[in-house]
């Protein structure tokens, strides 16, 4: 399952990170992202609406690669899985959450920021890691330094935190980066106001930028 997840994420390149206060906004948001060329999103479990939002999207838009983020406790991993999430994400590395995810068959992407955390995550079989908070930590330079000693393990990375349309290309130039997470596409204020047009514009812009960037690497 993890190989399939990495392959799909790599083909998309962008994981919009979403905070939903109202589950009724889940379907129009998912529809907007899909129509704008982005079949992936990560709904954070920071609100009580998260599980219901995941369930609604999983039922109505099975083509959406749907992640559940900010999984801080084992029970949240179980709830995300039961709701229909295709993968789970956390801002940090908690072995209990990672073990629960593995036990229930939920592909899990733990957050790491140091060599020690990378080492512990890899030891538990986590091959896709969230590098967070990416820009604040030291950006591309730090990730390249860490990969210098971990590249041989086959690790893949999903940088998140401070990434936007202006700098995402510098991250995707790193071969080990499967995709980048970002909240700029679906800012909470845009979701709360139902500004699907602006979200569509940002998504389309990001998708087009990614396509242009990928073409330059071909």
Outline the low-pLDDT stretches.
none
From the N-terminal CA to the C-terminal CA, the straight-line distance is 27 Å
Mean pLDDT reading: 96
Give me the Rg, rounded. 16 Å
**Which bin fits the share of residues in helices?**
40-55%
Number of helices: 11
Tell me about the largest β-sheet: 6 strands, parallel
Shape: globular
Could you give the count of β-strands?
Answer: 9
State the secondary-structure class: alpha/beta
Q: Provide the β-strand percentage band.
A: 15-25%
Strand order of the largest sheet: 5-4-3-2-1-9
**SSE string, helix = H, strand = E?**
HEHEHEHEHEEHEHHEHEHH
Q: Based on the structure, what is the oligomeric state of the protein chains?
A: single chain
Features:
single chain; 218 residues; alpha/beta; six-stranded parallel sheet; three-stranded parallel sheet; 11 helices; 9 strands
Describe the secondary-structure layout.
Elements: H1 2-12, E1 14-18, H2 26-35, E2 40-44, H3 50-60, E3 65-69, H4 74-83, E4 87-89, H5 95-104, E5 108-109, E6 111-112, H6 115-123, E7 128-131, H7 134-137, H8 139-150, E8 156-159, H9 168-172, E9 180-182, H10 188-192, H11 196-217
Parallel strand pairs: 1-2, 1-9, 2-3, 3-4, 4-5, 6-7, 7-8
């Amino acid at each position: 399952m993890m190989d399939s997840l990495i392959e799909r994420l790599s083909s998309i390149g962008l994981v919009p990170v979403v905070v939903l206060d109202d589950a009724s906004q889940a379907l129009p948001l998912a529809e907007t992202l899909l129509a704008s060329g982005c079949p992936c999103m990560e709904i954070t479990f920071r609100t009580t609406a998260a599980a219901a939002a995941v369930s609604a999207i999983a039922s109505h838009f099975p083509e959406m690669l749907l992640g559940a983020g900010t999984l801080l406790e084992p029970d949240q991993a179980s709830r995300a899985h039961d709701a229909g999430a295709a993968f789970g994400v956390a801002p940090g590395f908690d072995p209990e959450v990672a073990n629960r995810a593995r036990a229930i068959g939920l592909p899990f992407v733990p957050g790491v920021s140091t060599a020690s955390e990378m080492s512990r995550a890899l030891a538990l079989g986590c091959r896709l890691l969230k590098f967070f908070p990416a820009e604040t930590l030291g950006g591309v330079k730090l990730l390249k330094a860490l990969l210098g000693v971990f590249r041989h393990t086959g690790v893949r990375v999903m940088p998140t935190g401070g990434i936007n349309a202006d700098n995402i290309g510098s991250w995707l130039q790193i071969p080990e980066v499967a995709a980048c997470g970002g909240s700029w596409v679906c800012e909470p204020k845009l979701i709360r106001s139902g500004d699907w047009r602006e979200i569509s514009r940002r998504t389309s812009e990001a998708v087009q930028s990614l396509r242009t960037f990928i073409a330059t690497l071909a």
